[in-house]
Amino acid sequence: MPNWLLPENIADVLPSEARKIEVLRRAMLDNFRRFGYELVMPPMLEYVESLMPFPDHDMDLRMFKLVDQLSGRTMGLRADMTTQVARIDAHLLNRKSVTRLCYAGSVLQARPSGFHATREPLQIGAEIYGHAGVEADEEIQSLALASLSMAGLSNVTLDLSHNAILNAILEGDANAQRHQAELIAMLRAKDLPQLTAFVAGFAAPVRDALSALMSLHGDISVLDRARKVLPANPKIHHALDELALLAKAAGAVNINIDLADLSGYQYESGAMFALYVAGLPNAVARGGRYDHVGEVFGRARPATGFSLDLRELARLLPAATAVSAIRAPWGREPALTELIASLREQGEIVIQLLPGEESSQQEFECDREIIADKNKFIIRKL
Fold this sequence. Notes:
Layout: H1 15-34, E1 38-39, E2 45-47, H2 48-51, H3 57-62, E3 64-67, E4 74-77, H4 82-93, E5 99-106, E6 122-129, H5 134-150, E7 157-162, H6 164-170, H7 174-178, H8 180-189, H9 192-198, H10 204-215, E8 217-218, H11 222-229, H12 234-249, E9 254-258, E10 271-276, E11 285-289, E12 303-309, H13 310-315, E13 323-328, H14 334-345, E14 350-352, E15 364-373, E16 376-381
Parallel strand pairs: 1-5, 7-9, 13-14, 13-15
Antiparallel strand pairs: 2-4, 3-4, 5-6, 6-12, 7-10, 8-9, 10-11, 11-12, 15-16
């Protein structure tokens, strides 16, 4: 096997694509800061118990694991950064006030999340801790939409769901609660025949409500239908009210309500959303509330946030155009050195060609050059 061959679903990022990704990363982190979010940088490697603080079959399959030679304990390479940031809020910062944190970094996954998906996503996201109201969910949703807008993406579809609805349906039936994982899998797959057969022995109100969930997807009118066909439970109505507020706050985007879409259910505890754009079958960003994650780190805090993969997002954008640059000759003359330094301080890209070098960079288009004119150096257009 050639020593330059990379593993499946692992790839180098070449200059033009890397520049697109980095421009997006800087712009989004700067925008997060304008909203008051503080940047944190969790480690790539942690003990598995910290990275996966609750049973999660999907995460267990996605995580690379190894043995720590210092402690003998099993460690994992992070496949997601959300729990890491929750640990920082709960255990290290330990603030009483609302805390806004953001992050950006690579995660590694043992299995790709989809066809042609990379196993090394560049994850960026933002989280709010300490506020249980829907206002925090609205801010996170707005920040996610603003991030896609900054990337130049339009025709965005916002998919909304709320897992408190399923919890409220199941709370009166202990048998149904024991089979929660199987029910979630069927709801995700929209497998109505299998669900109908599976819930045949459940209490009638639970059985009917679960079957109704499967059909509750579409535009905003779904919320009115849900109030009619789901149990008259205050928790369900409160969740529907929150979804109505979030749909209204989204502005001029396409709204899709899907009360059976429970992706990421393992730690989400309230309103959830996913953002879709043309050209990508999978969600380009996901977010939601996860109030209970901090408990395993010694401090339960209301929490909501979102994340997206910058590498996936960058693939949707047009190819990067060459950047204007200035070509300079090789030389040690003080006047030349001072001119090049001055231009770079002003933000210009100056490429000083080495002896015998030909200008061939694809990232830069030299539309000007520095030449010697009598006893001075001047800039000439090409």
